[in-house]
Amino acid sequence: MPTEVRAGSVIEYKYTDIVYTPVLSDWVFQRSIPVKLSRYRIDFPREIEVYASPLCSLPFDKKEESKANRDIQIFTMKNIPALRDEAYITCDDDYLQRLQVRLLAVNPPNAPRRSLVKNWKEVIQALMEDEDFGVQLKRNIPRTADLDERLKGVSDPYTKMTIIHKYVRDKMKWNGEESIWANAGVRNAWKDQTGTTGEINMILVNLLRDAGLNAKPLLVSTRDNGRVNVAVAEAQQFNKVVAHVTIGENVYVLDATDKYTPSKLIPHDVMYSEGLLINKIETFEWRWTVLWDEKQMFRDIVVFQANIGDEGVMKGEVSVSSYDYSRVRRMPYAVKGEKEFREKFFTSNVPGLQVNDMSLENLDADTLPLVQKMKFTMPVNFSGNHKYFNVNLFTGLEKNPFVADRRFSDVFFGANQSLMLVANFNIPEGYVFEELPKSIRMIMPDTSIAITRRIAAEKNQLTTRIILEFKRPFFTVEEYPDFQEFYKKLFDLLNEPIAIRKESNP
C-alpha cells in the first residue's frame, strides 16, 4: 500500500548538494510550516577552511568533531515555528533562521594557502572586466533620430535626464528577467527593444553618459531579494543594476524597467537600502551609498462632502489626490480599469460602500498627483433614534494590521507617510449631534508618528480634519510593543464613531 501524506504528517528527508564553487547555499532551518528538527553537517578535509555563521535568533545546537584528517561541524535546530506571514515585512529571507556557509581557503600541506574569498575591490574589477557587465557599459548605443529630436536645444541637465529616462522607459520592454547582466548585449537589446533589467538600465546609463551627464551604474538588491551583507563580497547578492545620476548637489536613481516611477523619486523597491556605486568604470573605483530621501513619501489628500439622509444612507462626493509613492502604487491598477481600481483601494475593506461616476486625472503626468474623483453611497448604522457614522473613509486605514502581540520581523513601510483627511457632513433636519469626539493630537514618544484630529459642529454640519504623519519608515522588533500599543490607540481614534440623535417632537 502506498504511503499517504496527511495533515499532521511529519516528513523527513535528506539530500546531498555537490558544489564546484566557493559559494555555498545558505541552509534554511525555518520554513512556512513548523519544522520538528533540522540538521546541517559540514564535513571537509582539514586542508579546506570553512566559514559557518548561524543567522539565528532562536536556540540552536553546535557540535564540533575531528575524525582522521577531517573537521566536522553539526548545527541542529529543533521545534522551529513556521515563519509568520506578517504585514509590512522587507523580505522573508531576511528573517528566516538560517546558516551561512562559505569555503574560505585551500591550505594543502607543503603548498601556499590559496584564498577562495574575494574582497569587494576584486569583485568590482571582475565585474568591470566581464563581457556581460563592464564591457557592455562601454558600448556605444546608437541614438535614434527621435531621441535626438527630443533633446534638440535642451541644455538643462535635469530636463535632459528626464527626457532620456522617459524615452528608454517607453521604448524598452522588460522581458521579466531580473538580473545585473546583459547576456544578449546592450546593442542587441536596443535593436530588439526588449531585455533584462541589466540590459535596459545599462542602455540608460550609456545614453545618459553620451549626453554628457554624470551617470554611473549602481548595483542594488530589491526589497523582495533581501538585504545586502556588505561584509560578504559576492556579486550574487545584487539582482538589479540602476542608473545613478549626479546633477549639482542632487542625486537621482533611475530604473527604466519601472514604468511609473518618475525621475525625481528613488524607486520604491530599493528605497532605504544600500547600493554599491561604481564611481569610475575605467579604474574600478567604488563606494557604498544609502538610498534614502525623507521628503519622498506615500502622500494622500482626501477631501469629501457627504449628506446623511433620514432614511439612513450617506451620499457624497470625494476627491483623493495621491502623490509620490502613493501615486506609483496605484498606477498599475489605474491602467487596468476602473472596476479593479475601485475594489483594490476603496470598496473591498468597507462593507456597504458603493462607488460610481469615477474619474482619474493626470494618468500621463507622472510629476503630478493621481486625482481620483467619485460619488459614493453607504449605509449608516442606527439604533432607535440614533444614527452612527465614521469619518475614516477613503484613507486605506480601515483595519489595523498590527493586532498581534508578538512579531518576528521588523516593521518596514518603505518610506515616510503623510495623510490629510478633510470631510464635511450634513445631517438631516431634526437631528442633533450627541457628545462629539474631542479634538486631539497624539504623538509617539520618539515623535516618529503623530496624528492630529480637529472636529467642529455647527447646527446640522460637522467638519473634521485629520493629519497623520510618519517620520520613520522602519520600526524594529524590539520597538514593536510600543509601536503596537500606539497603533491600537491610533486606530481607535481614526474609527471613533459620530453619533446623531433625532429630536423628540415638541
Detailed description of the structure:
The protein is globular. It has three domains: 27-115, Immunoglobulin-like (Sandwich), CATH 2.60.40; 120-291, C8orf32 fold (Roll); 297-502, Jelly Rolls (Sandwich). α4 packs across α5 (197-210). The protein starts with 26 loop residues before the first strand and ends with a strand. 29% of the residues are buried. It has 506 residues and is of the alpha+beta class. The strands form seven sheets. It has an eight-stranded mixed sheet with strand order 17-18-16-15-22-26-25-24. Strands 12-11-10-13-14 form a five-stranded antiparallel sheet, with helices on one face. The chain is 18% helix and 36% strand.
